[in-house]
Write a structure and sequence with these properties.
Strand order of the largest sheet: 4-5-11-7-6
Strand content: 5-15%
Oligomer: single chain
Shape: globular
Order of helices and strands: HHHEEHHHHEEEEEEEEEHHHHHHHHHHH
Number of helices: 18
Distance between the termini: 44 Å
Structural class: alpha+beta
Number of strands: 11
Helix content: 55-70%
Length: about 600
Amino acid sequence: MPSYKAPVEDALFLLNDVLRIGDFGDLTGYSEASPDIVAAVLEEAGKLAEEQLQPLNLPGDQEGCHRAGDGSVRTPKGFKAAFDAYAGGGWISLPFDTEYGGQGLPYVLAAAVNEFFCSANMALSMYPGLTAGAVAALLTHGSEELKQLYAPKMIEGRWTGTMNLTEPHCGTDLGMLKTRATRRDDGSFAITGQKIFISAGEHDLTENIVHLVLARIEGAPAGVKGISLFVVPKFLPDAAGNPGIRNAVSCGSIEHKMGIHGNSTCVMNFDGAQGFLLGEENRGLNAMFVMMNEARLMVGVQGLSMSEVAYQNAAAYARERLQGRSLSGAKNPEKPADPLLVHPDIRRALLEIRGFNEAGRALALWLGLQSDIAHRSPDAKAREKASDLLGLMTPVLKGVMTDRGFDNCVKAQQVFGGHGYIVEWGMEQFVRDARIAQIYEGANGIQALDLVGRKLPANGGRAITSFLAEVGGFLKANDGDEALKPLLGPLSASLGHLQQATLWLMKHGASSPDNAGAAATDYMHLLGLVTLAYLWAKMSKAAHASQDPSRADFLLAKRTCALFFAERILPETALRLARIATGAEVMMSLPAELF
């Protein structure tokens, strides 16, 4: 059976030593997040993940969800009790405004604990994760009546939330959606249509489910400019705000899918269901993007989470499994073989995974901090800079973390050899579960196109200019630091590759959109690599600065992994730049009929 240990120490190192969240006392909620509170929150989250969520992961995958003839869905055994423990512990409420029942603590803290929950049980963690995204959309765009009616119960975990975008004939191209909204005399709308791939669309975990549904009001413009967003509850609230009569929304079927079997991915039918406008008419995507961006951050963390739990199990196996002899001579001559860890290629695989995981965690928490600054800082300039960075890096977090996360699960599976292909070891489930993260909430190719097509040129390139200046400033400020010298040279070279790629896109992308499209994925990964290397340099600086002897082994591992990343992973930026510079000519020259 697979195991999992929440990386509490690593998260605390990032929050306290690297990001230094204690210096942000001017942000709402940060004064309550003392070091003792932060440590206690992370430790309790780790216990919930390890003791209640993780033991359900493998059996939940094997049992899956089941739909009854009446359209109701039963989740795997134990999921209901675990969800109740999750909600009852206040984990959904952690970052939300106290006015609606939240705890008002930093979002960055929620980002840290969400990684633990997802590593322990990705399928189960999606139910509250999607709810948090739906609450964010409600609080941003909902009327006060909608917010008061729905948000407190969702924050409490009594009700859950979903997002309903995709339809059978359209995936990413939402301008093609056919779900329609007809005005009712009472000011609400009748929603009619079918949505597919709806995670957590129907289940037995809570007393109500609140669907956020994209639909087109009759007479609205064609394309994305005519899309509105609606709140469509499974049960219409009665006068007291409790679940009343059943709405005309139902689960038509559960998708038969590759992974995350413990999450009910549904086909949802809306047969004149009563819905309530969320935000402005014909600006539904604007409102839904609040939830989508929350979801993209969550999905990026899913890539990290699967990579982390896969690494932990592969590393444990490599320490214990005896197989072959060391190339430099037997390390355990008294035993029939040496452990797998003596082999350089096994170490290569494990350090590639770990080098990504620890920097990926830093990226997730760094962006969590930027989200807090963007939404809570009293300084307008600080809010603008953080918002720019968050927008620029959201496609990177989603795309790079999930691409690498899946690749790392495969690498970890390979460490097990044939055992990695066997269900009881759990590795094949991690591979299957991780695969979806590259697809949903905008496939990674779409994330890359969004990055080069929208995020780079936005506000005259203000975000990328600021990021390049920040990394350049770090290099200049630490130029004389001998301890960091082995990291700064490679980082400087890769920053140069990113600058060249950015200039190439400015010159060739505008004149030929195909050039931008052909370069998009490589540019996204190039930016991701530079960002991860920058964060490794910051982590190494903090590790060198620490004088805590009780963390000597932890800090040694941190410094060593930073060097490995610089030596063995970061050189990939040169390859990405070379690919970008080839343009789209050859790629687009092959006639369609020859594919």
